């Protein structure tokens, strides 16, 4: 009986769960493309979009993720955030990337792309740099920044920053908004 228990433990430890493979979790059309950098973490497929021609504005990045039944990545925990940073650096992506967090609807009230809020009761993780996002000075004498609405992750600094991402005609005409790389996430339910 003892030998069977040891053998079962060895087999379980030797052969990882099939559910943690790219083929099982990621959308099929992403798996077959050599342009995609895919990794699995905690049952979620992450697509690290890389290349100068892949750069998008915030709403374009959101739409691109949605087109494959996903959404912009949501690093809601320190572990997920660190996984994303480590993966970006592993893929030689040092530029800032869009994540699925913004305060477009109401300044200072950050909301994830799944509709949940950054501050959700006592559950609250953020990685904003000092002076950015929730760390920004507020009040009557604070500088106004009503247009810094979309959040990026800077992997080299392992910090988040909120940036201007308005869609007004002048910005589109003169390309004032910098296009950025982004990370999409997919769960098995999303990609079915």
UniProtKB/TrEMBL annotation:
Entries under InterPro entries matching the protein: C-type_lectin-like, C-type_lectin-like/link_sf, Ca-Dep_Lectins_ImmuneDev, CTDL_fold
Keywords assigned by UniProt, alphabetized: Signal
Residue stretches making up the C-type lectin domain: 41-167
Coiled-coil segments: none
Signal sequence coordinates: 1-19
Methyltransferase listed as a keyword: no
Gene3D superfamilies, per the entry: Mannose-Binding Protein A, subunit A
Name of the protein: Collectin-11
């Amino acid at each position: 009986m003892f030998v069977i228990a040891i053998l079962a433990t060895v087999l379980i430890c030797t052969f990882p769960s099939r559910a943690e493979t790219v083929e099982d979790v990621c959308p099929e059309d992403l798996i077959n493309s050599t342009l995609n950098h895919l990794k699995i973490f905690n049952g979620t497929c992450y697509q690290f979009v890389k290349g100068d021609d892949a750069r998008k504005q915030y709403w374009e990045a959101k739409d691109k993720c949605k087109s494959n039944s996903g959404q912009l990545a949501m690093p809601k925990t320190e572990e997920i955030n660190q996984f994303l940073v480590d993966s970006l650096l592993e893929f030689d992506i040092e530029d800032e990337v869009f994540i699925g967090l913004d305060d477009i609807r109401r300044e200072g009230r950050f909301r994830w792309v799944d509709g949940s809020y950054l501050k959700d009761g006592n559950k609250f993780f953020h990685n904003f740099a000092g002076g950015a996002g929730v760390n920004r000075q507020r009040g009557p004498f604070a500088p106004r920044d009503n247009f810094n609405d979309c959040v990026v992750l800077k992997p080299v600094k392992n910090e988040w920053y909120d940036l201007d991402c308005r869609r007004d005609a002048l910005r589109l005409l003169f390309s004032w908004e910098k296009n950025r790389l982004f990370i999409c996430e997919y769960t098995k339910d999303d990609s079915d």
